[in-house]
Design a protein that fits this description.
elongated
Length: about 250
């Protein structure tokens, strides 16, 4: 076999390997982590709880749904605030007035969500919640929700955020002693100031700590119990997203 024939054979084998890798990659279906799209952020639509945080709504499912319908708007503002159209790594300053921003619509960003909910018909008390929030090192800030920060380029950058499940998703510190809620949502936008899987593990650890301290349940973004298999799928999707980002950056 001549050198020319050997080169042709190696080229054909290489093309076949690439086709196989591409085909196998296309067969994987995202399960837990989604790219942000138009009407894709509905964090409050399917919350499965049986007790509202406001008196008078316990037996009114319609009112409960109305209470939860506004949380996606809060998250849209959070995502937009750190979208590609605004400075991603600026330090956030506490403000009582949320910014009005456009929805972030780009396949270059992904929203990752975890939830901690009270079991059954129980509720989470504000005083107990504050104790855990202090333990997991989050701070009250932009949009009247809590944020976990990391230091980057001499500025504090948001690693992940934590919102109330009940509309409008905020926490009022001056009323925290009387505050109750069926659960809270942890969420982060990738890419962020820390590598995706590392950032997710930090958020997961905080969510697990909260679930343990409050005798609650750790749920995925659809408010289903987060199983070991579900957790592994989330990690896999985050890794795949990071790989896509690296390839896009190198293209």
């Amino acid at each position: 076999m001549s050198d020319w024939e050997l080169r042709v054979l190696l080229l054909v084998i290489g093309i076949i390997i690439l086709i196989v890798i591409y085909t196998l990659g296309k067969k994987k279906t995202p399960v837990r982590v989604r790219d942000i799209d138009d009407d894709d952020l509905h964090l409050g639509d399917d919350v499965k709880v049986s007790l509202s945080a406001k008196k008078g709504t316990e037996d009114d499912p319609t009112q409960m749904r109305k209470e939860m319908d506004g949380l996606d708007e809060l998250v849209r503002e959070e995502v937009g605030f750190r979208s590609v159209d605004s400075p991603r790594f600026e330090a956030e300053k506490p403000s009582s007035k949320p910014k009005v921003v456009a929805d972030a619509k780009t396949s270059n960003e992904t929203l990752v969500v975890l939830n901690v909910a009270a079991k059954g018909s129980n509720i989470i008390l504000g005083s107990r919640l504050m104790s855990v929030l202090n333990e997991i090192d989050v701070e009250y800030g932009e949009h009247q929700v809590f944020h976990r920060y990391t230091q980057r380029f001499d500025n504090k950058q948001v690693l992940f955020s934590l919102a109330n499940m009940i509309k409008p998703g905020i926490f009022e510190l001056d009323k925290i002693e009387d505050f109750t809620t069926p659960g809270v949502s942890f969420y982060m936008v990738l890419p962020g100031p820390v590598e995706g899987l590392k950032a997710f593990n930090i958020m997961l650890d905080c969510a697990q700590t909260m679930a343990e301290r409050l005798d609650g349940e750790l749920l995925d973004e659809s408010r289903s119990i987060l199983t070991k298999q579900g957790l592994e799928r989330m990690r896999e999707e985050i890794q795949l997203f990071s790989v896509r980002q690296e390839r896009a950056a190198g293209a």
